[in-house]
């Protein structure tokens, strides 16, 4: 009887782990989205600039930042934050809960190997990316400054009426080519980096800072590798009539801007993706630890 009673609290603490992972992921996504939205806006504006003739003056991140503040005021840097919230809060929750479910299902008895971490991260990101793609399209258009949408609901209605529901999934291939490799590479490098830390440091008060540092290192590498796919995705979602397919978009970008065109907006994107992913994972793991779950 005593042994049976002893097992009850443990069973209760493991109730609804996927829901807890979703909540932890959503909270981490809220923090990171609010903080780093300006970098995402600047990245989108850089990638969709039209006045980029050969020999012309180069436009950098700082110039775009100052221009937005001058013409749209300081809060203009947070344009598109509404669809970002609608996309990231449930999207990050879906990502982390899917990741947690897959990890617990396939690797409950052992730690996943490096290539298995890549597959876990990529699979979780594909689920979240496909689920939230319509809001990603709306977010990108908000940030581009070319559309005068008044709200997320109004934008969804406008796109469905004028371009058809299929437009909400424009850039799907490019999005998956960007997000799946990014997440796979990130999770693998992040996890492997944490494993190299001394055990006594990994369980100290410095744990959040060390995790964040590992996340920054992983984010930089993953961002550079997936930058070309991000440029293609942005063009296809902002102007789907011109950049109608991934192959056509690749051809147009290369013809008009050369190889460098695939790395426009790389600095603000790398900063945002790196810091956002590092913060999201750090907050997620700390919250999961507080809830008594292994992330």
Describe how the helices and strands are arranged:
Elements: H1 2-13, H2 17-47, H3 61-72, H4 81-106, H5 114-144, H6 152-162, H7 172-195, H8 199-202, H9 207-238, H10 246-257, H11 266-290
Helix pairs in contact: 2-3, 2-4, 2-11, 4-5, 5-7, 7-9, 9-10, 9-11
Strand content: under 5%
Please write the CATH class name of the largest domain.
Mainly Alpha
SSE order in H/E notation?
A: HHHHHHHHHHH
**Integer count of domains:** 2
Membrane topology: Multi-pass membrane protein
Keywords: Membrane, Mitochondrion, Mitochondrion inner membrane, Repeat, Transmembrane, Transmembrane helix, Transport
Subcellular location: Membrane; Mitochondrion inner membrane
GO molecular function: glycine transmembrane transporter activity
Overview of this structure, please?
This protein has 295 residues and is mainly alpha-helical. It folds into two domains: 17-50 and 59-168, Mitochondrial carrier domain (Mitochondrial carrier fold, Alpha/alpha barrel), CATH 1.50.40.10; 170-294, Mitochondrial carrier fold, CATH 1.50.40. Helices cover 75% and strands 0% of the residues. It contains eleven helices and no strands. Helix 2 (17-47) packs across helix 3, helix 4 packs antiparallel against helix 5 and helix 7 (172-195) runs antiparallel to helix 9 (207-238). The model is unreliable at 6-15 (pLDDT under 50).
């Amino acid at each position: 009887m005593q042994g049976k009673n002893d097992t009850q609290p443990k069973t209760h603490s493991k109730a609804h782990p996927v829901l807890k992972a979703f909540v932890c992921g959503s909270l981490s996504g809220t923090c990171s989205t609010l903080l780093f939205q300006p970098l995402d806006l600047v990245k989108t504006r850089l990638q969709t600039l039209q006045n980029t003739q050969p020999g012309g003056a180069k436009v950098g991140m700082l110039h775009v930042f100052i221009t937005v503040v001058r013409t749209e005021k300081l809060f203009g840097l947070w344009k598109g934050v509404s669809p970002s919230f609608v996309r990231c809060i449930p999207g990050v929750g879906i990502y982390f809960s899917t990741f947690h479910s897959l990890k617990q299902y396939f690797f409950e008895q052992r730690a996943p190997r490096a290539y298995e971490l890549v597959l876990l991260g990529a699979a979780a990101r594909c689920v979240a990316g496909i689920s939230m793609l319509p809001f990603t399209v709306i977010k990108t258009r908000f940030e581009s400054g070319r559309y005068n949408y008044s709200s997320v609901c109004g934008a969804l209605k406008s796109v469905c009426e004028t371009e058809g529901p299929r437009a909400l999934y424009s850039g799907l291939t490019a999005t998956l080519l960007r997000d799946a490799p990014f997440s796979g590479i990130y999770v693998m490098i992040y996890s492997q980096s944490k494993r190299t830390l001394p055990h006594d440091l990994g369980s100290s008060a410095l744990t959040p800072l060390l995790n964040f540092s590992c996340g920054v290192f992983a984010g930089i590498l993953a961002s550079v590798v997936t930058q070309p796919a991000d440029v293609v995705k942005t063009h296809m979602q902002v102007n789907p009539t011109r950049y109608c397919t991934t192959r056509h978009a690749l051809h147009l970008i290369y013809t008009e801007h050369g190889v460098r065109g695939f790395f426009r907006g790389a600095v603000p994107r790398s900063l945002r993706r790196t810091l956002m992913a590092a913060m999201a994972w750090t907050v997620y793991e700390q919250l999961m630890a507080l809830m008594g779950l292994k992330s």
